[in-house]
Design goal:
By secondary structure, the chain is α+β, with helices and mostly antiparallel strands. The protein has a domain of 51 residues. 21% of the residues lie in helices and 36% in strands. It has one helix and five strands, in the order βββββα. The strands form two sheets. It has a three-stranded antiparallel sheet, with helices on one face. A hairpin with a 2-residue loop joins strand 4 and strand 5. The N terminus is likely disordered.
Length: 76
């Protein structure tokens, strides 16, 4: 019954048309910004970006820092 979150892409409807934009895994639209979130060891981390690509890139950089043992941001 459950879906694999990494295989299912989120969609965002653009205004004024039926065209949809697919979001990378872990990124969602929040208002007019895009937010990337993940959780490691019970701590939540979040980053934002003006575009889905910026949010995903910041999310990947943050994940890399956390896996190296550097805790760059306070937990959310």
């Amino acid at each position: 019954m459950g879906t694999n979150q990494q295989q299912v892409a989120s969609t965002v409807s653009t205004t004024g048309g039926s065209r949809q934009q697919y979001l990378p895994p872990g990124v969602r639209q929040k208002g007019n910004r895009f937010e990337g979130r993940f959780k490691v060891g019970g701590k939540q981390y979040a980053v934002t970006g003006a575009t889905p690509e910026q949010a995903y890139q910041a999310l990947q950089q943050l994940k890399e820092q956390v896996t190296r043992g550097v805790d760059p941001l306070p937990p959310r």
